[in-house]
Q: What sequence folds into this?
């Protein structure tokens, strides 16, 4: 059975896509720690990040870097934090979280609530910055 992330890539489940190429996909986390919190995934369905083929893992990191640069242009922050947890969805993924303080990346704190309009606008702005690269 396909993971929720594979279903998002196929368009079966809606998402706020910010970037995509033939191998990778990035979309806003719908339960964000901070405005601009984005998930970056390989399109290939592999549960554990370090089980990815080396070239896929390297490409994912490069793709995530490009997404992070786009987020920084849209969301005021000191830097983009990176987290790899991977326990909640059995599909390798990287969290990119805009940070102003180290505590901004605490996954135990309450999540932000954004409207569909806020998500759509944010995704559109990040996607525009990504496409400029």
A:
């Amino acid at each position: 059975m396909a993971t929720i992330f594979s279903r998002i890539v196929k368009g079966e489940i809606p998402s706020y896509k910010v970037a995509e190429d033939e191998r990778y996909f990035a979309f806003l986390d719908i339960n964000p720690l901070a405005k601009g919190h984005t998930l970056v995934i390989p399109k290939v369905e592999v549960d554990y990040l370090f089980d990815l083929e080396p070239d896929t893992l390297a490409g994912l990191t490069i793709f995530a870097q490009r997404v992070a640069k786009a987020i920084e242009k849209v969301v005021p922050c000191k830097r983009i934090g990176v987290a790899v947890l991977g326990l909640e969805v059995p599909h390798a993924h990287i969290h990119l979280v805009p940070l102003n303080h180290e505590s901004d990346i605490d996954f135990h704190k309450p999540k932000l609530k954004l409207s569909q309009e806020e998500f759509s606008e944010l995704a559109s702005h990040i996607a525009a910055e990504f496409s400029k690269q």
Observations:
- The CA atoms of residues 62 and 68 lie 10 Å apart.
- The chain has three helices and five strands.
- The chain has a mean pLDDT of 96.
